Amino acid sequence: MECMKEGLKLLISRSDKEQNEFEKYNNMLVLGRIRLISLANIFLSIFWAYMDWTIINNGADHIYSVTLISMHAISVVISAIFLIFYRWVIRKEDNKNSRIISITSKVYVFLYILFGAACSINSQRYTGNIYSYIILVLIAAIVFTLKPSVMLFDFVVNHIIFLIGIGILCNDLNLLLAKLVNSTVLAGAAFLIGFIFYRHRMTEFFYRKKLRENEENFKKLFYANPYPVFITRQKDGKIIEANKRAYKLMGVEAGNLDSFNGINDYIKNDSRVALEQELKEHSSTFNRIIEYDFNGKRKWVTANYEIIDYHDEKCILTGIMDITEIRKAEEELSHYASIDSLTGIMNRRMGLKKLEELLEESKEEFLEFVLCFLDINNLKFVNDTYGHSEGDRYIQTLCSMIKNKLDEEDIFFRVGGDEFIIVFSRKNNCQAENIWNKIKKQFDESNIQEEFPYNIMASHGLFYFCTGMDIDLGHIIEKADKMMYEEKQRLKKEHQTKHSPASDGIF
Q1: What is the rounded CA–CA span in Å between residue 329 and residue 333?
Q2: Average pLDDT of 343-349?
Q3: Cys-Cys with 41: which of 56, 79, 370, 412 at CB 3.0–4.6 Å?
Q4: C-alpha 375: how far from its chain's center?
Q5: Residue 141's CB: how many other CB atoms inside 10 A?
Q6: Three-class SS string for 220-263?
Q7: What angle do CA 210, 215, 217 make, to 5 degrees?
Q8: Percentage of the chain surpassing pLDDT 90?
């Protein structure tokens, strides 16, 4: 009863337009099944003829035999006529043909059940069974599921005909009552089955319609989205849908996605593994900063990812916003924030940060380096004698000479004014001194060639550090600074010995 109530509620809740739309779909479905039944009936016509011939030879009476042959012949003829007119009936989907299809379906189902009733009534003359009626009523309920009111009419009218026919031909009262009760129960059960099938078919129809509408709305939003959006298969990353903005971002013509094997191949930083893991755990992730490289075009984007079902496949819906220009601006700002504007090397903040990272790394693995504290000589003399612009040139030249002798892993930054720090990474004192001698040799060669009206000179102090030493960054710099100061004082004394005390200002 609860099923009946839900079914009736479903039928009543639909508008006339929706009901007519479903009826048109259902009638076309029934018409297609009638075609299959008609084809099967024609193919079985030889079998019917053989069965009729066998029954007649076994002593069936004349009326039964004539009726049986006539009914089979009529069913084959009707099937053939239906197949001839089938294409004509469905050729045009206008209102007129829709009515013809509806009428044809209703008439056929009524006659189909009537045929079963007639066969069972005729069987009372020979075998006394009602199998034909039972089988065809069940087939009609399952295969030809029409509107419940139509099916109820077909079942009631044909069942009355069946009961009248059986009542006339069946002489055994007890057997008659058994057949009446069994056939009535079966007809009621068949109607209930038909009603349930009809309800499920209607539910499925409107569910699919809703899915189509949602898909259409999704496509409208997808293609009209002002930001790049694309859909990729989860299993291989293949792009299967993209809007115009996405095509433009990727640098390909609309519809030409064959060259893109998998979007994951274009992710250039190490976020791909983390992205896949997060999608696996949460089915979505938002506001991720991702770097793509589309055919040599480096793009930074902020991306949102959502796992969806698309065309019966697990896919990833990706919406992105191109932030390449913003990223470039950030990188430039970061560059300026970490680079000394005069020399182009790292500034104090970034240099000390790199040193802290190096010390942290030494806690995890063996690491050694030599910190060189550097102070430029003669800078005050150059500024006072030739001006600050020449003093700046002096600093730039000295830094350029030093950078030419450093390895890529070495750290070089300006502490401030005329003070600098070099970190000879993964080197010992001897190696660091060798490099410093090469730098000093470069200074001497420039001085001999008198490229500048002053000598390029610098004092330095070295401190060796390796894993296991109990010392912090401040003390490392302090000790290197002390060594530098001692060298500076020594050079100053040597200079005073060779020159007059009036020239002390050059240090």
Answers
A1: 6
A2: 90
A3: 79
A4: 58
A5: 27
A6: HHHHHCCCCEEEEECCCCCEEEECHHHHHHHCCCCCCCCCCCCH
A7: 95
A8: 29
Are residues 163 and 181 in contact, defined by beta-carbon separation less than 8 angstroms? no
CB 148 within 8 A of CB 195: yes
Sheet strands (E) in 311-382: 313-322, 368-377
How far is residue 32's CA from residue 92's CA, in Å, rounded to a whole number? 15
Q: 379-386 and 388-404 helices cross at what angle (nearest 10)?
A: 140
Smallest CA-to-CA distance from 318 within 277, 264, 253 is with 264
- Three-state secondary-structure class, residue 343: coil
Write the secondary structure of 49-69 as one string of H (helix), E (strand) and C (coil).
Answer: HHHHHHHHHCCCCHHHHHHHH
Mean pLDDT of 385-408: 92
| DSSP state for residue 339 in the 8-state scheme | B
The pLDDT of residue 191 is 93
Q: Whole-angstrom Cα distance, residue 402 to residue 439? A: 6
- The upper half-sphere exposure of residue 492, i.e. CA atoms within 13 Å in the direction of its Cβ, equals 16
More confident call, 420 vs 80: 420
Going through 329-476 in order, the beta strands assigned E by DSSP cover: 368-377, 411-416, 419-425, 457-466
Amino acid at 422: I
CB-based contact 371:478 (threshold 8 Å): no
DSSP 3-state assignment of 417? coil
- pTM of the predicted structure, to 2 decimals: 0.52
Q: What is the mean pLDDT of residues 212-231?
A: 81
CA distance 433 to 483: 13
- Render 76-96 in DSSP notation, one character per residue: HHHHHHHHHHHHHHHS--SHH
pLDDT tens-digit series, residues 69-106: 888 888 888 888 888 877 777 666 555 677 888 888 89
Q: Are 186 and 137 in contact (CB under 8 A)?
A: yes
The rounded distance, in Å, linking the Cα atoms of 279 and 162 is: 64
The stretch 215-219 carries a mean pLDDT of 79
